[in-house]
Amino acid sequence: MATYAIGDLQGCLDEFNELLAKVEFNPLNDTLWLVGDLVNRGPDSLGVLRKVHALADSVVTVLGNHDLHLLACGAGRELRRKDTFGDIIDAPDRDELLGWLRQQPLLHYDDALDFALVHAGIPPQWSMAAALQAAREVEEWLRSADADELLLNMYGKEPLRFESTHSPLDRARFTINAFTRMRYCFSDGSLELDSKEGPGTAPLGTIPWFQHPARVTRGQRIAFGHWSTLSQSEEDARQTGIFHLDTGCVWGGRLTALRLEDLSYHWVESHTKAAFD
Asked: What is the CA radius of gyration of the chain?
């Protein structure tokens, strides 16, 4: 039995199948952890979503920003020029697929493995318990009859810092941005949501969320994706407990898996190059 955490798929079905074959994944015994962004930019978002959905109880996936954007488009938001999941919106099984996707968490934590799974990161000021509580508040909303209200109003950067006195929508927007969009933050834990390149390119006074000196989850092992321009050595990951898995498959990089039981890495080279940079 093995548990494999895999980086952003983004519609790269061929590489996904190749990686599963390489690690000899057996859905009867093994489990997949997917860091989110199953869809968009790549060539076969519908195929990826159908495959992950069919894996049923052998897969755990958290929601990424592209997955949430797909749900918003399913609720009526207009697709953007760069979106490549129109085939999902038009698919005969779209309601089943989107209904399933709405049930997925923003944050997953496994006590037995002592591992957390999230798409972008966990704000440095939150403990794991606080992060799970914030995630549950949003997840319950997404699974409710009022989900469209959240999906159509989650866009925007404000607030950049979480306050319990904020409105439910503002709290939800911060939580979504933190878990699915964050790369850098400021010293007070507020989010910086504009910079997408690697460390050394962000505005003065910001730091990668996982390097914040007062991060409450320091010592907690966390697998995440989202940041294709972030470079990390395997040694650094094992030393820090921060395992970055988005190795840019959709941009011509690799699709990477981490076996959680022994922290071994496995990958396949991409043969996809997204049409839009």
From this structure: 17
d(CA 139, CA 101): 11
Cross-strand pairs, 191: 185
From first to last of its 277 residues, the chain has per-residue pLDDT tens of 999 999 999 999 999 999 999 999 999 999 999 999 999 999 999 999 999 999 999 999 999 999 999 999 999 999 999 999 999 999 999 999 999 999 999 999 999 999 999 999 999 999 999 999 999 999 999 999 999 999 999 999 999 999 988 999 999 999 999 999 999 999 999 999 999 888 878 788 999 999 999 999 999 999 999 999 998 999 999 999 999 999 999 999 999 999 999 999 999 999 887 654 4
CA distance 132 to 139: 10
Full-model pTM = 0.96
Domains of the chain: 3-269 (3.60.21.10)
Amino acid making up residue 104: Q
